[in-house]
Amino acid sequence: MVEAVSGLHHHVSLSLGQLLQNGEVIAIVDDDAAIREPLRIYFEEHGLAVAECASATELMQVLASRNVALVLLDIGLPDTDGLSLLPRIIDQYPDVAVVMLTGVSELRVVLDCMRKGATDYLSKPVQFEEIFHVARKALEKRRLVFENRKYHEELEEAHFRIQLLHQLSVKMNSVYLSTVELDQILRAVLVGITSREGLGFNRAFLLMFDADGRFLRGKMAIGPSSREEAGRVWEEIEERDLNFLEIVDNLKETSKSHDAAVNAIARNLVVSAEETDNILINSVLSRRSFRVSPENGWVPMPIERRLGNNRKHNGGKVRERRDREETGFPDLGVPRDLINILDEDAFVVVPLYSPGRAFGVIIADNYVTRRFIEDSHVGALELFASQASLAIEQSHLYNEMQQKVAELEAANQELDRNKDLLVEAERYSALGHMAAQLVHIIRNPITSIGGVSRILRKKNVDAEWEKYLNVIIHETERVESTLEDLFDFVGQGEIHKEELTLCELIRKTALLLQSSMTKHGVTWEMECPPVEPVVQGDMHQIRLVFLHLFKNAVEAMGDGGRLTILVSVVEGQAVVSVIDTGPGIPESYLDKAKDPFFTTKTYGTGMGLTLVERIVRAHGGSFSLKPHPGGGLEVQVVLPLQ
């Protein structure tokens, strides 16, 4: 099919250079050489290529072997008449314009020629200038037909793209995107990129970053391994008259067989995020699309050029060099490793991203047809990429929301199940503080009073005074007994050991303080080994240990911070490090911090760390404090494994 002339809807009259393209010629068919040759010379002088034919047989040979745009056909030919030949030409070569030349000027003949498909009719004798004018108008009319056909196809393609983007938007607006629904959306985007009614790329590859962002990996791909396979797939879809979402479902079901080759390629696409000089990573980091060609390497795609011009194949190389010069990009070599994996040296890379994060890239190529990738297709590809980016972002937000909801539900459940533990921890703290005051204020005086009273009773001989002394001694013993009971209360009770999965126990304990952390602007994270350590211990007391440590850390970060819990296994022992970003404890106080009743304004009431050390030692472990190199305090609990 003849390529449309850009801008023809603005200028109806074409230049001579635009009348014939792609090696097209004008066939002059007349048995009289005295007419053919001068007319050929006249047309060639005006820059139009001509092929001479003396008969209908020669014309059909030229039509079969050359790209004929216009036939100047004489009605009277030696082997047949032009009027009989005309329907055959129109039937076999519908894109060829035909102007009839004849000495017959009857109206009936003229009308018969026009009814059979002739573009125009000239009666001999006629001047060359008139023939040239009619031929030019016939060629312009032919070009208008092609232009109209081209615009109609582009409108259909644009309609399909808009319909597809609308359906994707409705899908995303109507539901929250789970992982399964996200995969359907992404596959739909790839279908739109590769479908005949969409962008028409042969293949499309989707690559996304891992959850930790360390590697970019191929996730899915769509595309045939050959032209025959492509035709077979889309013919089947057209025969079944499927709508777009049905196409997506159909390809999802058949992807294991039809897309096996491209998905195998996608699985081989793995790039480290640290390879910033790699075209795929560079595309995401710079948020810029790149076109790859074997001659020019990878070239940035300026938005202003895509919006303003439609690059054609012939001028592509020159303009790609200009693109690089205009954007100030350095010479970027041909990415041989990627070309070897794709088995294709011409493709486009488009990034996927949201304002806050990068997701991956889409690679599209014309592996089968080898069609040049035009700027307009790159721009449309970016529209599909933006839709994919929105879907990924919405899915991430949905998953994060679900995770937060799950954490809140777990925290509430833990609070309901363990609210007594929190009350008990607070009671330990309050009673510890009260016991400290009683020790310093009451115990020593009471001991002195009791001792003096006993001495006086031994020396006293008066029965009445002995009665009063006995009251003093008795009440003193009651106060001392009460103090001992308080110390017994805050001390640990009997240990009931059982198998404890340490990470699970710590995680549940941290959830008890989730609301307090949120109130103080504290976030927390926990790292556990792949195989969680198991210890023997009293679940109630071990949880009390970590509850005190977490409470102290949160209280130390009154203006917000981060609590880090690291669990590891070292030399047959479980090591738990609790690290906060608070002000820490001065080194001069570290040795005293575990003493009973020692306290500072920023780190507990004095009994918590004493209780922690007592419980840990009772379980055969050790407990230590030290300043963290990054700031704050690091508390380490070591417990023997099961």
Structure description:
- There is one protein chain.
- By secondary structure, the chain is α/β, with parallel strands linked by helices.
- Helices cover 53% and strands 17% of the residues.
- It is built from 21 helices and 19 strands.
- The protein has helices spanning 16-19, 33-45, 56-65, 82-92, 107-115, 128-174, 179-194, 227-240, 244-258, 260-267, 279-286, 303-308, 316-327, 336-342, 375-459, 463-490, 502-511, 514-520, 539-556, 587-590, 608-618, and strands at 25-29, 50-53, 68-74, 97-102, 120-123, 203-209, 215-222, 270-272, 290-293, 297-300, 347-353, 358-365, 498-501, 522-527, 534-537, 561-570, 573-579, 622-627, 633-640.
- The strands form four sheets. A seven-stranded antiparallel beta sheet has the order 8-7-6-12-11-9-10, sandwiched between helices. Strands 2-1-3-4-5 form a five-stranded parallel beta sheet, with helices on both faces. A five-stranded mixed beta sheet has the order 14-16-17-19-18.
- Strand 9 (290-293) and strand 10 (297-300) form a beta hairpin.
- Helix 6 (128-174) packs antiparallel against helix 7, helix 7 packs antiparallel against helix 15 (375-459) and helix 17 crosses helix 19 (539-556).
- The chain is rod-shaped and about 165 Å long.
- The two termini are 79 Å apart.
